[in-house]
């Protein structure tokens, strides 16, 4: 049997002083802390005493994912590939502050988008996110067969993909996602059969005080 591991990585902290849900908007880059998170993960994966067998680093086209992938690719002497299927989930509230107070939820015109949390009605359906993410995973498995690949994506697509492969319901409480900034959700295959799902936070020491936005 041939063992292949695909690591689904969430990007590092983003510079977002306005606190908006930036979604797929261009121009949102890593903060200094986010850059350090990316370097920490690169060092973890390439550590001489436990160097991983990474032969492909592929990222969402969004700037924050590309910047997160760069030090990892450099550590393994690779170029960063781009796969649009790894992009953030589409969201009606993109570019807005999401909340009651001075946020978008105080405006009645947005309320119809909240009618069905199971789909969800405010953005790209969970099933569509899983479909495209698994297609990206399968493509990476072919490229890295017998080795390892790192795919840099975003919290929600990574999390619903994990829920799907673990045969859990896709609808969930966003506050309970196990997918922190710069975390690694690792899918291990023997030939074409998924045999294990792992989770690791190499940059956990940088998480206290880090800024997060739902769906980032």
TrEMBL record:
UniProt GO molecular function: glycylpeptide N-tetradecanoyltransferase activity; phosphatase activity
One Pfam family matching this protein: His_Phos_1
SUPFAM superfamilies per UniProt: Phosphoglycerate mutase-like
InterPro entries: His_Pase_superF_clade-1 (IPR013078), His_PPase_superfam (IPR029033), NMT_CS (IPR022678), PGM_Phosphatase (IPR050275)
Top-level taxon of the source organism: Bacteria
CDD domains: HP_PGM_like
Entry GO CC: cytoplasm
Protein name: Histidine phosphatase family protein
Species of origin: Cellulomonas rhizosphaerae
């Amino acid at each position: 049997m041939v063992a292949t591991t695909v690591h689904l990585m969430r990007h590092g902290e983003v510079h977002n002083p306005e606190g908006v849900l930036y979604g797929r908007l261009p121009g949102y880059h890593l903060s200094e802390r986010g850059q350090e998170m990316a370097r920490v993960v690169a060092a973890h994966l390439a550590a001489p005493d436990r160097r991983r067998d990474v032969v492909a680093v592929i990222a969402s086209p969004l700037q924050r994912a590309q910047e997160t992938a760069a030090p990892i690719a450099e550590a393994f002497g690779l170029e960063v590939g781009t796969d649009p299927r790894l992009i953030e989930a589409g969201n009606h509230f993109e570019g807005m502050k999401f909340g009651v107070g001075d946020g978008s939820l105080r405006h009645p015109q947005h309320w119809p988008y909240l009618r069905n949390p199971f789909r969800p009605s405010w953005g790209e359906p969970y099933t569509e996110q899983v479909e495209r993410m698994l297609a990206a995973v399968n493509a990476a498995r072919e490229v890295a067969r017998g080795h390892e690949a790192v795919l840099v994506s975003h919290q929600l697509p990574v999390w619903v993909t994990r829920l799907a492969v673990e045969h859990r319901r896709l609808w969930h409480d966003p506050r309970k996602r196990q997918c922190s900034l710069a975390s690694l959700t690792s899918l291990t295959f023997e030939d074409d059969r998924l045999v294990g799902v792992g989770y690791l936070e190499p940059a956990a020491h940088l998480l206290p005080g880090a800024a997060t936005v739902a769906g980032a």
